[in-house]
Input
Amino acid sequence: MTVSRAALSTILACALIGCGGGGSSAPPISGGASPTPTPTPTPTTSACSLRAQQDFADSVLNEWYLFPDLLANANPASFSALQDYLDARVAPARAQNRDRFFTFATSIAEENALINSGASAGFGIRLFYDTSNNRVFVTEAFEAGNGFAAGLDRGSEITAIGTSTANLQSVATLMASGGPQAVVNALGPSTAGTARILRFVQPDGATIERSITKTEFALDPISNRYGTQVLDDGGKRVGYLNLRTFIIADAATQLRQAFGQFAAQGVTELIIDLRYNGGGLINVADTMGDLMGSGRVGQVWSRTVLRPSKAAENETRLFQSEANAIAPTRIAFITTNASASASELVVNAMIPYLGDNMALIGGNTFGKPVGQFGFDLETCDLRVRAVTLQTVNANDEGEYFSGLAGVVPNTCRAPDDISRPLGDPREASISVALDFLAGRSCMAIGQSGTGDTASSGANASQRSTSMIDLPETEALRPTRPSPAQIDIPGLF
Output
């Protein structure tokens, strides 16, 4: 069995050991050094039986799991699926909110395709649902997907789903009969060629009914439509960056291009929009830190900490030189409960350097200061992602299992206003972010008040006249998500 950190570290809302077939490694999710695992025997013809996979998972957990005292005993014979067995073994950690389905089994081939090229199959849209009224909305559309080509975009509401016009079922009926999972089932598997009839209502009230086929498409980490902008806020230049995911390796290149634009225009104040960013590669998070680290080269960016028996693998990551780096003076991070893992790492790592000059805008984050290594059983196309590490900032702070709202010095409550495009200064969260950067007051996340409007500054209403009270939303998520759906909340 061999393991290497590889150039790709991942921090999933959200590393590895390879064995069999020569062995290989998967990038660590959420940090980690280069583990040297204990060798295991060459797989036999029964290497891919459920029991063999369970034994492999046990060897991983027993040697590497971050919380060894929170592992439960479980009888392998009592389970018919590897994931159920993993869930049982880490149940005590889950009960303490330290492993909320962060330990899981996945496909080596599918995850590698996602990391290397952003490859995924689906409509290319993010779906979130209103937890009070059970309505399903598109919060974002990927430009290369068939959903966007068919007219689905931010603010579209899906009202009915079917395999033909004759068997359309309303979302209300599906929710009433089986909750969000019934909607997930109606949308069909994440495989190319799957077609569905979708009825949806556009923000302008128009109702559209279209047959849309799921295809293989490339996920673009930074949208060409709105991902990087320099906003004019009363004559002041504010850099706006919307990073969809850290999981795709090319995100580092796109970040360098984005910060090159900011540097060229003398931007020192930023809005970093991570509202749906579920995490991804740690080395991409590291690059993002470097791009905000002008003048800090050689100082501590973050630390990776493993269980005591693996302390030799702990690592301190320093700011490194980047040609397009800037020295931001103020940053507003837009987040929601879908912001996790690498997103939270970046926010937490900036606290020692910006303090009161940074804020969390929108809602509290998910709460995932831990990361995974990926352990590969190659002959079975099996990767076990196990929680193996925790990341902390330069002040050794990293206990934000309940989210970052209680950690970041300033927070400003704001709704995710899907009535406005992402990148629009009038969109509620962006408007409140601009207010923070301008020194205006706001309502703190978690503070009681009327609705979700967050800014009480005198000039806030000039930009936020269309701000609406939106209900609490959650990403629509299958019980057994694909690799892409793990890192990209709401992806279908």
Remarks:
- The CA atoms of residues 239 and 262 lie 6 Å apart.
- The chain has three domains: 10-117, 120-218, 228-370+389-471.
- The longest helix spans residues 171-187.
- Residues 1-25, 28-44, 448-469 have pLDDT under 50 and may be disordered.
